[in-house]
């Protein structure tokens, strides 16, 4: 059932992009990391560390509560069998970013469980995907993000690889 749901969501996402309705690259609300979501944090300012595990259609944990002004070190591990993203943003930022991620699939940068980093940023081959609020990982890879949450707001973390968000690969960040 999960596999069928994932395949259906992926096909829906691809049909959406092919229809020309996908948003163009760079259409983010204030860029990938607008002031509405905070800013990159500094190592010396980390208040706590949060472990994030990415599976093939969900995250562990599914939601986070963060204090306004807190700086979090996210230790992100891809425990799934596909390429996944951990991206901090607003729902509208994620919606805009899905078009860019579709472009990465269409240009062969993301192929199932393989990420062709050597093709990233090449003319006509999508974006570099090097924003401080996001990591893109192959199965078994781990990386860290240090992020400072400056505003009282509700955010999401999400995987915007085509079909992944639609299959449930997103979670909430409640900053109070």
Automatic annotation (TrEMBL):
User: Which protein is depicted?
Assistant: Copper-binding protein
Give the span(s) annotated as Disordered: 27-46
The protein's GO terms of the molecular function aspect are: metal ion binding
Origin organism lineage: Bacteria, Pseudomonadati, Pseudomonadota, Gammaproteobacteria, Pseudomonadales
Question: Secretion signal: which residues?
Answer: 1-24
Classification via SUPFAM superfamilies = Cupredoxins
State whether keyword Membrane applies: no
Which controlled-vocabulary keywords does the entry list? Copper, Metal-binding, Signal
Q: Which residues form the EfeO-type cupredoxin-like domain?
A: 44-89
Q: PANTHER family per the record?
A: AURACYANIN-B, COPPER-RESISTANT CUPROPROTEIN COPI
From which source organism is this entry? Answer: Tamilnaduibacter salinus
The record's listing under Pfam families reads: Cupredoxin_1
KW Glycoprotein (keyword) present: no
